[in-house]
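Backbone geometry tokens:
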Amino acid sequence: MDLLFKNKKITGILTVLPSREVHFEEEMGNYNFSTAKSLKLKMAMGYNKHRIVDEGVCVSDLCCHGLEHLFQQGKLKREDIDALILVTQSPDYFMPPTSNVIQGKMGLKQDMICMDINQGCAGFVLGLIQAFMLLEQPTVRKVVLLNADVLSRKVSKRDRNSNPLIGDGASITIVERTEENSTIWGTIKMDGSRADALMIPAGGFRQPSTSETAEMHEDINGNFRSLDNLVMKGDEVFNFVQVEVPPMIDELLERASVEKNRVDYYMFHQPNRFMLQKLADKLEIPREKMPNNIVENFGNSSGATIPTNITFNIGEKLEKQEMQLCLSGFGVGLTWAALLLRMGKLDFCQTINF
């Protein structure tokens, strides 16, 4: 689906990361593999360390910490928030919506919209799309987009396929209207027939968690996980990204009449270093224009990886200058989406610890 937005802009991005840092070597003993094989995987995939929340820390805690930071720094006013969008796959509760919980904790006004969206890897792009649409309403002037997940809780510590790459984190993105004559080009696609490529089989109403779903089983590759844990079919996900994402990006740039070399950075979702290197090669984009260092430093925090990528790699630049960026997320759903926009001279673009 092709999308087009006029006179919208991002004015600030804040990433909130847990202070707790776990190194790959600390967890190798959990895996049913030799040290040599694990270290070989570390080199190939770019695993190093990831940020994990402490016991009891939830999505609302990360988001409220970031919002309070912005309030105290004078970067955001409570009364200016007209809409609060939370994109997460690990909400505090089944009900009520976690966005309402955050609104209550932060003492925000009642005359506003709160909205939870269940989306993962493409969640930042999908959240921005929703924010742009809300800004079409005259009474909505400032939208706060929250992307947050604590999926480390749902990954088996004995699953070498997933555990080393999963990290926790949150981001806060401020989206507003602008009087400048700006155009944002977008596209989004979905294929639910392949939804089982990335899923947590048990825990919902289709298959509630029981003592049986918590039992650990070994897969053909030597990983141990239960039905309550995240299951990722790595080969299928890799092939999906390499086949579906390049033509989507090519078509988006062609529609916007922008050549690849005119894009300053391709700020993509961060599944792992290897996948992004191959994707850059497939798109014939210089690897330095598609940063791939988030998993090795912080882990894959689902929808928060794109804003983490932005604040970590080009945050200082975006506070001073404007650049042409292509944002893209792809994964769970299956969902793949992209935006082409100019971004820069932001009020803030930084990372803080929780």
Remarks:
- The chain has a mean pLDDT of 96.
